[in-house]
Amino acid sequence: MAAAPSDLTELCDRALGAYYGLGTRVDEREAVLLFRQAAESGSVEAWGHLARISVRRQTGVVPPEDQVQKAVALWRDAAVQGDAKAQLYFGGCCEHGIGIAQDQAEAVRFYELSAEQGNAQAQSSLAFRYTKGEGVPEDHAEAARLFALSADQGYAAAQSNLGTCYLYGDGVEPDVEEGVRLYRLSANQGEAMGQYNLGLCYEEGPGVDIDPVEATRLFAVSAEQGLALAQCRLGYCYARGVGVPKDPAKAARLYRLAAEQGDEEAEEKFGHCCLKGDGVSWDPEMGVAFLERSASRGNPDAISYLGLARIERSRLCWTVKRHGYLQTRVGRSRVAAVLWCHRRQTLRIEVSARLKSLALCLRMSSFADLIMDFCYC
Question: For the chain, what is the largest distance between any 2 Cα atoms, rounded to a whole number of angstroms?
Fold first, then answer.
């Protein structure tokens, strides 16, 4: 039996409150659960909201395309009639191509219409576009102004973004104390990015006394909400034993969680874990795959390591051809190399390693040690 429209409206309102932190702490997981409950009870709009959320995070729910299109149509009609919330939602659909063709100009137009009516989320979304120059001229002063309008209404995401503006003097005069204050306001509302940013302050010291334990605590609560940046940073804390006991297995698990969301730094770090067998089973092929993914996103460290790996692979190929054959003895050095020798005197070599320098990664004194470890003369 379908739920009454009033009950569905109440469910969606509660979900929106949890998603945006309106009158309550931000809780995206709770928002997804409530939207799903409303959607499965017959709310077309709830399916649309789930589609919007899935752009940012994995929800475990695949909204039916026909229901999403119905939701978008409802929002479009209401937006044209001047409903500020519908203008925000429809603008988001235009921005990300949800149930409609992607159209950045339309996204900006509806965000502006909603923002002019004082919608805090629309003001924040529009401000973010000004920081990047996406669909509007790049204007950091205008971005800061819009973030401030949104933050003044208590919108946690805008408070975090405005805090960054003040911390780095981006569109406003630098004010570290004001930046930290805004981060704290955002973090106290449960905003994952605000928690992460405040954690960085405690880790590095601007505006507060350095406190690794508090930094790690903030990274942890942010990571629990699925923020890839926080997962990667918390992984680093466990890898180095900063603010928490050293735990390579936890570090590798967190790196992978972040890497699977496309975080380039986490991809690089998890690739190294695989190459060294650090916290995970030794797996050079997976290690190289993650390094290549990171490099493809422009990560300079991953690009550097892979470049050095190719140089060392060329040297190995030359040495193997000279000696004619070799024997693999992976173990003592855990070098990330997989070598095959075929009977027809053909040789295929796959070499991968954590390579800032060969000596560091293989814990050997020189390239000659590598040859002695693997080759017969």
Answer: 82
